[in-house]
Amino acid sequence: MLLGTAACSGSDESSGPPVTGVAAEGQQLFRSNGCAACHSVDGSDGVGPTLQGLLGSQVELDGGTTVTADEAYVRESIVNPSAQRVAGYSAQMPARELSPSEVDALVAYISALR
Predict the structure, then answer these.
(1) DSSP assignment, residue 30?
(2) Judging by beta carbons within 10 Å of its beta carbon (0-12, 13-18, 19+), is residue 98 exposed, middle or buried?
(3) Is residue 30 within 8 Å of residue 15, measured between CB atoms?
(4) Which CATH superfamily is domain 21-112 in?
(5) What is the mean pLDDT of the chain?
(6) Helix (H, G, I), strand (E, B), or coil: what is residue 19?
(7) DSSP string, 44-91
(8) Largest Cα–Cα distance of the chain, in whole Å?
(9) Cβ proximity of 58 and 68 under 8 Å
(10) 72 CB-contact burial (10 Å; exposed 0-12 / middle 13-18 / buried 19+)
(11) Which of 15, 37, 76, 82 is within CB 3.0–4.6 Å of 10 for a Cys-Cys bond?
């Protein structure tokens, strides 16, 4: 659902608004892991869903269920991307080996994109 790779088509030029602290660490991870190649942070369409305004929003999943994209959902989507796939996106996001602090930083960055 969330973080893709540079193998996806898309642009890595914009990775969101200026952020500080842990969110800035997450922004750097977002860039260095190629996430912007599939996920926009400005609401535009991409290979994967946009991350702008994700936290707290309702997300329709494959199978027709809907979940609230809270921090637990975002965290699970980063760690186990195939667990709850967003409806309408067929590309499979690869799992990344990230430390708990790296996942925290990515969640903080995604939270800053409200």
Answers:
(1) H
(2) middle
(3) yes
(4) Cytochrome c-like domain (1.10.760.10)
(5) 86
(6) coil
(7) ---SS---TT-TT-EEEBTTS-EEE--HHHHHHHHHSTTSSPBTT--S
(8) 37
(9) yes
(10) exposed
(11) 37
Asked if residue 23 has pLDDT above 80, the reply is yes
- How is residue 92 annotated by DSSP? P
Give me 67's structure tokens: 């979940």
**Alpha-carbon distance 65 to 94, whole Å?**
23
* Segment 70-88, tens digit of pLDDT: 999 999 999 999 899 999 9
Q: Residue ranges per domain, the chain?
A: 21-112
Helix or strand (DSSP H, E) at 106: helix 100-112
Q: Give every CB contact of residue 97 below 8 A, 6+ residues apart in sequence.
A: none
- Record the pTM: 0.83
Q: What is the per-residue pLDDT across 90-102, written as a single tens digit (0 to 9) for each?
A: 888 888 899 999 9
Query: Three-class SS of residue 20?
Result: coil
